[in-house]
Every structure is written in C-alpha cells, then in structure tokens.
Amino acid sequence: MTTRHTVRIGLIQHACGSDQEKNLAKATSLIRHAAAGGAQIAVTQELFASLYFPQTEDHAHFALAETIPGPTTQRLSDLARELGICISASLFEKRTPGIYHNTSVMLSPQGQIIGLYRKMHIPDDPGFFEKFFFTPGSPPGSNPAPGRNSSSCNPQSLTPNSQLLTPDFTGWQVQTTPWCKTGMLICWDQWFPEAARLTAMRGAEILFYPTAIGWVPQDPAPVQAQQRRAWQTVQHAHAISNGLFVAAVNRVGTEGQLRFWGSSFVADPTGLVIAEASPDEETALLVDCDLSKIETQRQYWPFWRDRRIDAYGDLTRRFVD
C-alpha cells in the first residue's frame, strides 16, 4: 500500500523486435499490468517502440521517427487517461526534416504532455552511433515552448482535452505529477553528474533514466561484469550525492551484436537498491518510493548545505589547463 509520502512506480522492461506495433502492444500490456498493481507512474525503456537502431549508420532508420505529439504519444495519452496514471515514454522524435531527437515525454493522468526532454549527451561508440541520428537537446531557456513557433509538438494533435502545459522544454527540467516531482534524463546522460545535479536542483525527487545498454559477445565475462557494475555504481552515486531516488529502465534480449542486460533498478536516497529486475526477463517492476526518505537523508548527509557554489565556476570550461 502506498501512503501520502509514497509513490509507486512501474519500470517497463522488455525485448523489442522489428515490428513496432508489436513492441507498442507489449509495452501497453506491461503498463496495464503495472497500473493494475498500483503503479502511479509507468516508465518505458529507451526507444521502446523499436529495435535499438543506432547500432548501424543507416539512413533508412530515420523512417522510424515521428512527431511529438504523434501516433505513439496519442495512444499513450489515451492509455494514461484511461488508467489514471502518468506515463514517461522514450521516443525517436522528428522535430523537423533534418532535426531528430532522442526524447522522453511525460503524460499526465489527463493525457496531457507535461514534460518533454531531449537527450543532452549523445554517444558515438561502436554499436552506439547515436550522433548519426540525434541532435542534442538545447540548453535551458534557449527555445520557445514547442507548439508555439514550431511545426512539431502541436497541442492540437492530441485529444481535445489535451494540451502542452510546460512553458519551456529545453535543458534540465522537472515534471510536476500528482504524486511527486520527476526528472527525465536518458541513457548516456547517466554518466554525467552535472545532469543529475542540475535536474535535482530544480526539485526532482525521482530521476528516471530510460536506457538501452548491453554487452557485445566478444567482451570477456570479467569485462562484462565490470561494465554492468560501473553502470549501476554511477547511478547509485547520483542517488547518494543528490539525496533522491534514481530509477534506471533497461531492455532485455539480443539485437544485432548487442545483448542487453536488463537489470532495471531503483536506488533510494542512500544509494541502496530497493528493487532490481531480472537480467533477461520481461517485467513491469513495481517499486514503492517513500519520499520522506529524501528530507531525512539530506538532514543527516547535508551535501546541499555544504556545496561551495562560489568555487565551481570552472565547471563551465571544457578543461582547466
């Protein structure tokens, strides 16, 4: 049972195939399962509606992108309204011809888009050629709200009762849901403490990291274990240093050369993992987050109090020579 201090979240972990409709149906079924189990916020894995296509630099994959709002956000909007929950979904966004983003949206229980975050850190590694596809998100306050001076994110694309509520969808941001304040970051963002800090500073109580990360077959077992451990450790650290909850949502299964390691988890403000999914099974992981732990942890470990904000100016430089 949840209390007025507790929010129940559902992490939607599954395998993906080449049929987008089947992927969406699978995610929808798991979201329904999460809602039936009391989840108030359901969160998809990164790019949940398709295979992880950035393994190759193939122009044909741009056909997978869609506008926001668009067909997928419309279906999820209807689902959120039907179930009375929030849904955070990770999508391949076509903003305009030639500009595409790796984007997360937050849908309210009324089916409204109350958050839209465009991935800020874009990787370019073997098997993760994201710079070929994705334009980085813009710095805070640099663009008008989507739907005003943009052909994308037209609020009229949703149902008559739906509209875009957030005035600025740039940079680090927080979404105010009926149960808590959330921050949506995406995969490669998880390796950067600045992203977690700046989102936490805006009031986030839970950071969501939809993710597509796994091993290549030629990596020896010790290297695979080290990679997974590093992925977990850096996010545990975000929870500790910011005194909040961190939820990572990864996919499972083998796609091309990548075997995704699943293991979606939630860490509490002490860095303790309070729930973790299987490395290879599809699931809707239900987790209760007691938000009262945030204030308690920040009182006992007062990192916010002791930050030397007068001494951090060099963080805006690439390197201090």
List the helices and strands and how they pair.
Elements: E1 6-13, H1 20-36, E2 41-44, H2 71-83, E3 86-96, E4 99-107, E5 113-118, E6 175-176, E7 181-184, H3 193-201, E8 206-210, E9 214-215, H4 221-242, E10 245-249, E11 252-255, E12 258-261, E13 265-267, E14 273-276, E15 283-290, H5 292-300, H6 303-306
Parallel strand pairs: 1-2, 2-3, 7-8, 8-10
Antiparallel strand pairs: 1-15, 3-4, 4-5, 6-7, 9-12, 10-13, 11-12, 13-14
Helix pairs in contact: 1-2, 3-4
Counted by DSSP, the helix tally is 6
What percent of residues adopt helix (DSSP H or I)?
Answer: 10-25%
* Total number of distinct structural domains: 1
End-to-end span in angstroms?
54 Å
CATH topology label: Nitrilase/N-carbamoyl-D-aminoacid amidohydrolase
Structural class: alpha/beta
Summarize this, please?
The chain is built from six helices and 15 strands. By secondary structure, the chain is an alpha/beta fold.
Notes on the protein architecture:
The strands form three sheets. This protein has a six-stranded mixed beta sheet with strand order 5-4-3-2-1-15. 45% of the residues are buried. The termini are far apart. It has one domain (6-316): Carbon-nitrogen hydrolase (Nitrilase/N-carbamoyl-D-aminoacid amidohydrolase, 4-Layer Sandwich). By secondary structure, it is an alpha/beta fold. It has helices at residues 20-36, 71-83, 193-201, 221-242, 292-300, 303-306; strands at 6-13, 41-44, 86-96, 99-107, 113-118, 175-176, 181-184, 206-210, 214-215, 245-249, 252-255, 258-261, 265-267, 273-276, 283-290.
